[in-house]
Amino acid sequence: MAITRDAFELLCWAKQQNLQNWEHVLTLGRQSVILQPWDVANWEATSRSTNTLSSFTKRAEDASAGEQLFKAIGAEKVDSMDISDYEGASIIHNLNQPVPDHLKLAFDVVFDGGTLEHVFDYPTALKNALSMVKPGGWFLAITPSNMWCGHGFYQFSPEVFRTILSEVNGFKLKMMAFALSTYKKEYWIWDAEQVQRPGRLGIFSKHPACLLIAAQRISSEIPEKLSVQQPDYVVRWEAGSEKQEIKTALAQTSAPVQTKSLKSKLVSILPWSIRGRLWHRIAAKRNIAQHQRGLHRANSLV
After folding, report:
1. How many other CB atoms are found less than 10 A from the CB of residue 209?
2. How many CA atoms lie within 13 A of 240 on its CB side?
3. What is the domain extent for residue 210?
4. 87 vs 29: CA distance, rounded Å
């Protein structure tokens, strides 16, 4: 695992949000650091911190580099968790298994810089990570979303985090963004305005894409199981129940029921293959329109 440009920009964003308490940080896996001089220049130009980060302008294979970086940002203590002591992690634990009670609600920041996608029992691993965040603390993560086949066990949809990092599970999702890499340049697509909306958030790319996530724990209660349902289906189910209630009420009052429009009737007689193509075209246009506003906002992040 390594703190690269995208992960570094996530930390910059978090630092600029007045995320003051970095007293005790836990990284999932020990983190090396891979940064270029201009990445550090961005930090020093935008951060209120007086700490210098010039020592992180080249590839740092030393497994302690990530801990040094967090301390430069402001952390007083940095622990790391891994399944083995191969890289010298301070806490040895298999994230496929529940974490012990003394680690729950113990850390101000839990940082996943590319570990959880390598854990087979992902629901348990993510629940472990979230359970270790103190009330008021933060879960920060960068995780593969698209075009990372063969990197780990999984690639993730934003729906996973938008659903899990919700009030019912004790969290509030503060920021989620796609980081698209074209190898020559990188840019982010913000999801700041749509982060709590019930519709699907999708994107199609031919380049590697990661998700950057920042969520704050708002409750001291740790649910026994995470409550997870895909939001747009929940909306449909609820809407379906409401429609059925309306139909029942109309039937009981003998009120006239509106008939389908001519357009709806015409669409309903089309073959499923044509309907599917139409739906995908409409969905693609909607996704482009939803994300167009965020395409040029990368420079505002760091």
Report:
1. 19
2. 6
3. 2-226
4. 8
Where b means 16+ CB within 10 Å and e means fewer, 160-192 reads bbbbbbbeebbbebbbbbbbbbeeeebbbbbbe
On whether residue 284 sits in a domain, the answer given is no
Q: Whole-angstrom Cα distance, residue 78 to residue 277?
A: 51
List, for residues 163-218, the tens digit of each pLDDT value: 899 899 999 998 888 887 766 666 666 654 454 555 555 666 677 788 899 999 99
Nearest to 201 by CA among 290, 122, 91: 290
Pairing of β 186-190 and β 171-181:
antiparallel
Contacts of 54 (CB under 8 A, 6+ apart): 40
| Residue 67 falls inside a structural domain | yes
Where would I find the beta strands (DSSP E) of the chain? 2-3, 24-28, 32-33, 77-82, 91-92, 107-112, 133-146, 171-181, 186-190, 209-217
CATH of the domain at 21: 3.40.50.150
* pLDDT value of residue 208: 78
Residue 262 is assigned to a structural domain of this protein: no
**Cα 141 from Cα 158, distance rounded (Å):** 12
Total number of domains in the chain: 1
Q: How many other CB atoms are there within 10 angstroms of residue 42's CB atom?
A: 19
Per-residue pLDDT band for 28 (boundaries 50, 70, 90) equals very high
pLDDT at 16 (0 to 100): 77
Question: Rounded to 5 degrees, what are φ and ψ at 32?
Answer: -85, 180
- Least confident segment among 138-142, 203-207, 282-286: 282-286
User: Collapsing DSSP states into helix, strand and coil, what is residue 282?
Assistant: helix
- Return the closest-CA partner of residue 69 out of 38, 120, 33: 33
The number of beta carbons lying within 10 Å of the beta carbon of residue 204 is 9
| Residues 185 and 198: beta-carbon distance below 8 Å | no
Would you say residue 276 lies in a domain?
no
| Residue 106 C-alpha from the chain's centroid | 21
